[in-house]
Amino acid sequence: MKMNIKLYVAAALLLVIAPATQAQSANSPVKVVCNELKQQGKELVIDAVITIDGEQIKSRESLSLTPVLESASQKEGLPSVLINGRISQKVYDREVALNNLKDDEPRFLVMKAVKGVTVVNYKKTIPFEAWMKDARFVLVPNMCGCGNTEVGEPLLISDKVLTRPDKRYEVHPALAYITPEAETVKHRAEVGTAYLDFQVGKYVILPDFRNNAAELAKIDNTIHTIVNDKNITLEGILLKGFASPEGSYKSNTALAGNRVKALAGYIRKQHAFKESLFTLENGSEDWEGLKAKVEADANVPSRSSVLAIINSDEDPDKKDVQLAKLDGGAPYQYVLKNIYPSLRRSDYRVNYTVREFTVEEGREIIKTRPQQLSLSEMFAVANSYEVGSKEYNDVFEIAVRMFSDDPVANLNAANIAMSKNDLSAARSYLAKAGNSPQAIHARGVLNLIEGNLGEAEKYLKQAKSAGVKEADANLEELHKKQEDNALFDSFN
Asked: Is 263:346 a contact under the CB 8 Å cutoff?
């Protein structure tokens, strides 16, 4: 007798994080819920629940349900579920006992149909192969009875295997820059040190004496550069003279003062400057300079003892005598020859102001004299280029070189570094970026890029509370990355 039985299968492929659900048609003898069909490392995990209405399987019938993975190029059948009617089960058991069973199909389960509903928890793990990535999961019904066999149409359980994504999600952070405040007046200065040689005990400048020509030329060139620049107004020149500690402190103080006056006179004569342009300071004996150079020079004999004398609260002349007597005079002779000459110097600072520039002027000046631009002018120049272009990035990097300790310059440079994935540089800049809301936001972005999601969330929420609008977009990126991590972790 030919069997005419209609089978209905309802299936739902569920993500790992979703609860199981099912779809079904009314009067369906077969229902399926697919709880899990995914790659787990090198395996494919299958977890489905098959529900069969046993009352629709007659006594002499057998219903075979074979799960099949199939792609365009390959197919693999899995162990089937065989539900026998009452008489069919007796026949099956007898054939098994007599070893006459010729059914070579691997079975997941064989059981007798019962009144009411039979639930089969179909769980199977098989080796994952590359072709399965594009496979669908179907259930092939096969109804046998009275010598007839009817193979039904494959019934879809899931149209896709959940597989590990080929790539991890890459965050695309939004960056928050700060527009620098404009300088009311752009004060600038050129600084340097001149090591002039004088005859013993004298303070007259002799331009041709020893290396004086080269040292005086350094000052002259600095001043010429400033006074000949149409964008600059000279404001003043600060000179400070120092002497080395050997000899009387009083006479050395007088000598340092007279020598710095002599240098001011030389500059005035060379450039026809007014006396009011100069500010003179007397540094006297440079014990601080001596201390720094001894600390930096590992070759100073008895260095710890020398430093102990320098750091003592004794009168300068007494310290000089103690140094001269220390260890037979060897340390004193060393510093006298190798360190003291560098202490006899004149520091100079040429102060000036710079006019304001248009963006067009700034584009040219930043190439040759970036120190003349303010941080706000550099920001305007940067924004005259396409965001992310080489010119745009270069301006911010120049800005942080010119204003190396400025928090705003460091913050903006950190953003540029992160946009180029130079995370080491970004970290260094952020160390000097202060604690503005934008700096806190940037630290959140850096942690987000580096995958430190807990720290990133803390900083980004703090920045959001402080009004940084870019924080919302980055928190969304963070959530996407968390979901991506959870998905990848589920495949391990």
From this structure: yes
The candidate with the shortest Cα–Cα distance to 476, out of 183, 172, 251, is: 172
Q: What is the DSSP string of 302-346?
A: THHHHHHHHHS-S-HHHHHHHHHHGGGGHHHHHHHHHTHHHHSEE
Identify the burial level of 462 via C-beta atoms within 10 angstroms of its C-beta, where 0-12 means exposed, 13-18 middle and 19 or more buried. Answer: middle
Does residue 379 contact residue 403 with C-beta atoms inside 8 Å? no
0.85 surpassed by pTM = no
Total number of residues shown for the chain: 492
Distance of CA 215 to the CA centre of its chain: 46
**467: which 2 tokens?**
């009004």
Distances, alpha carbon 434 to alpha carbons 140, 409, 478, in Å: 67, 10, 24
**What is the distance between the alpha carbons of residues 173 and 71, in angstroms, rounded to a whole number?**
38
Which DSSP string corresponds to 90-138?
A: HHHHHHHHTT-----S-EEEEEE--SSEEEEEEEEEEE--GGGGG-EEE
283 with 305: CB under 8 angstroms?
no
CA distances in angstroms from 335 to 118, 172, 175, 298, 340, listed in the order given: 100, 58, 53, 12, 6
274-331 pLDDT tens trace: 999 999 999 999 999 999 999 999 999 999 999 999 999 999 999 999 999 999 999 9
Compute the C-alpha angle 214/215/216, nearest 5°: 95
CB count, 10 Å around CB of 206? Answer: 13
